[in-house]
C-alpha cells in the first residue's frame, strides 16, 4: 500500500479544496501508472504548514516575507 505525504505551505488562501483534490487524484494516478499500484490502496496525506511554523535561518518565513 503506497503512502504519499505532501507538505505545502498555506499562503494566500491556497491550497484550495479543489487544488488538494487535484493533488490527491494526480498523485494517485501517477503512482498507479509508474509503480503499477492499485489506486484503491494508495493513501495520500496533505499536511498544510502555516507560515509561522516554517523557519529559515532562525526566523519564521512569515517574518521574512513581511519585511520584504
Automatic annotation (TrEMBL):
MF GO annotations: isomerase activity
Active site, renumbered: 2 (proton acceptor)
Cite a single Pfam family from the UniProt record. Tautomerase
Q: Which stretches make up the 4-oxalocrotonate tautomerase-like domain?
A: 2-62
Q: Which UniProt keywords apply?
A: Isomerase
Name the EC number(s).
5.3.2.-
Checking NCBIfam families in the record gives: taut
| Similarity field | Belongs to the 4-oxalocrotonate tautomerase family.
What's the name of the protein? Tautomerase
